[in-house]
Specification:
The protein has a single domain, classed as Jelly Rolls, CATH 2.60.120. The protein is 14% helix and 28% strand. Strands 1, 2, 3, 5, 10, 12 and 13 form a 7-stranded antiparallel sheet that branches. Strands 4-11-6-9 form a 4-stranded antiparallel sheet, with no helix packed on it. A hairpin with a 5-residue loop joins β7 and β8.
């Protein structure tokens, strides 16, 4: 990760691979897009059998890769991520999509670990609001008004992983510690899930990682609102 970020910092400007955030007088890499195209070690984690075996137990044996990114939360800073679901950013014909977060550093409540609302993946779809940067989010107050809703911190040791469903409401707070919180993120989908909207020009988008390619599409009986604005986070004003 350090080699990749050093390369990015030489650019000192956001582009289609890196975005930055200002910390005092210095620009620091905040997000890396398609990191698997920049480093073989990152690419190799996509098909790591410990990960694939878990995913296949959750969404079946036929699995495609969707995209990768890396989030870097720097010490005493590291921006928060507002409450949201992943699905509105990449709607598909069914909900068998999972996000795997690989912890490069230990993630704790103090350094802004992932927060989730357990069981929220079974809730009816809720339309997100678009803020002035272009990000889709939903207020914590609205989520906690649901019966028995509670927030749980997902603390993960370095080199560990967390997995959440595309409908699980999640967020993270700013990093308030003296340690970085870097994570590599891969999203996978069932091979019979067809994307309906959102960005698709990811590196190795649709790559088969387990099982076989299917010539069928599985539809769920539901209704949801497709976004009119771009769901590509590289287009956000404060990305």
């Amino acid at each position: 990760m350090d080699i990749v970020t050093q390369k990015a910092e030489l650019l000192n400007i956001s582009n289609k691979s890196f975005t930055f955030e200002q910390i005092k007088s210095k620009k620091i890499v905040k997000r890396i897009y398609d990191p698997i195209s920049l480093n073989k070690t990152f690419f190799d984690t996509v098909k790591h059998m410990n990960i694939i075996n878990i995913i296949s137990n959750l969404i079946g044996p036929n699995i495609e890769f969707h995209h990768s990114k890396a989030h870097l939360k720097h010490a005493y800073h590291g921006s928060e991520i507002h409450w949201h679901q992943d699905f509105p950013f990449l709607p598909h014909t069914n909900f068998d999509l999972l996000t795997v977060m690989i912890a490069i550093d230990e993630t704790t409540e103090k350094n802004g670990c992932l927060q989730v609302i357990p069981g929220s993946h079974k809730w009816p779809l809720i339309n997100h609001e678009v803020d002035n940067t272009g990000f889709r989010k939903i207020s914590q107050e609205k989520l906690l008004s649901k019966n028995n809703a509670k927030i749980v911190n997902v603390e993960v040791p370095a080199d560990g992983i967390s997995i959440h469903h595309c409908l699980t409401y999640h967020s993270s707070l700013p990093n308030q510690s003296n340690k970085s919180r870097r994570s590599l993120i891969h999203l996978y989908r069932a091979a019979d899930a067809l994307q309906l909207a959102g960005r698709t020009n990811h590196n190795n988008y649709g790559m088969l990682v387990n099982g076989k390619k299917l010539n069928t599409v599985r539809l769920v009986d539901t209704e949801f609102e497709l976004n009119r604005e771009s769901t590509d986070s590289r287009d956000y004003k404060n990305n």
